[in-house]
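Morning!

This is the sequence you dropped in the shared folder:
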Amino acid sequence: MPATRITLRRSLAAAAALPLLAVALTACGYGSAAKDDDAGKANVAADGKKLSADTVKIGYFPNLTHATALVGIQEGLIAKELGGTTVEPSTFNAGPSEIEALNAGSIDIGFIGPSPAINGFSKSKGKSLRIIGGSASGGVKLVVNPKKIKTLDDLKGKKIATPQLGNTQDVAFLNWISEKGWKVDAQSGKGDVSVVRTDNKVTPDAYKSGSIDGAWVPEPTASKLVAQGAEVLLDESTLWPDNKFVITNIIVSQKFLSEHPDVVEAVLRGSVATNAWINANPDKAKASANTALKKLSGKALPAEVLDPAWKSIQFIDDPLAATLDTEAKHAVKAGLLDETDLTGIYDLKPLNKILKAAGKPEVDDAGLGVK
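The structure's back. C-alpha cells below.
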C-alpha cells in the first residue's frame, strides 16, 4: 500500500501547540521494586533477565478506549512483565499534551489516538515517535436528539458536536459529510451541517441545553448522551472493513526505543497479556477499568453508561495500520492536512516477535513501517 503523505496545516499546528493540562500521577511503585523485601534488587523481568531501565513512564487517558492501560496497570499485568522496573503512570486530557510530554521525555511510552500520533510524527519530520502496537478499536458513535433527527438525511441543517478541530472523530465526521455530498468548511465548521467543536466533558451539558442536536463522539461520551435521552443513529465501526478501525495506539519515543528495547518489549508483553485477560474476563475487566477511572477522576461510571460503552470497544493487539492510513487520507481530503511521508511511523518488529512466540498471527504495518 503506498504511504500516505501528510503534514498538519499551520492553523492546526498552532492549535496543537496550545498548552494543555496534563494531570500527572505520582509513581505508584508497581513491580517487584515496590516490595520492601525486594529493596535493592536489580531490575529483573518476568523471564529472569535484568532490564536496562529503573523506571518506565507510561502516559494514557482516563477513558474507556484506553482500558488496556487502565486495566494493565490496575491489575499489575504490565508490572509483572517488567519485574523490578517501576511503572510511573501519567494521565492526559488531550493528545497534543501527551505528544509534548513524549517529546520532552516526561513519558517514554503512551496510549494515544491515531490523529495525535500522525501529527506528532509529521511535525517532527519522522524523528519523534514510533507506533509499536494497537490497543483498541471502535467505541465511536453518532448520537442524536430523536425529536429532531430521525434519519441520517435529517442531519442536514443541524448542529452536531465533535471533540476538537482536526481530531480523529472530527475528521471522520467531515469525511462522512463529504460522502453524503454535503459541503462544510472544515476550519469554521459552517455549511450544510454545523460542526460544533466541543470538549467531551461539556458535550452532555451542551446536549441537555439544546445548543447541539447530536454528536459524533467516542465512548463513554456517546453513552452519557444516550442516558440523557439521545439515540444512536450510527456506529462508526459499520463504516469500516470487518467493523474495525484504530481508536487507540501504543507509541514510544524513538530515543527510549533505541536505548531500552528490552523495556519496550516488556511493556508490549504486558499489553498483549492485558488484552488477552480483558477478552477472557470481560466483566471483571470492565469493573477493573471503572475502578481505575474512579481513582483518577473521583467518580465511577454508572452501569447505564458503562455497559453499552464497554460493549462497543474491541481490545486488540493489531494497530490496524491500514485504517490509520485511510484516516490520514480523509484528513487530506477534508483540507486539514497537507501531504508528507508517513513511512516509518510503525515499528512492529517487537510486537510481532511477541505474537509469534505466543503462537498468535503477526500484524501488518500497511507499508508504513521502518525500512
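Headline: Residues 145 and 194 are 15 Å apart (CA to CA).

More detail when I'm at my desk.
O.
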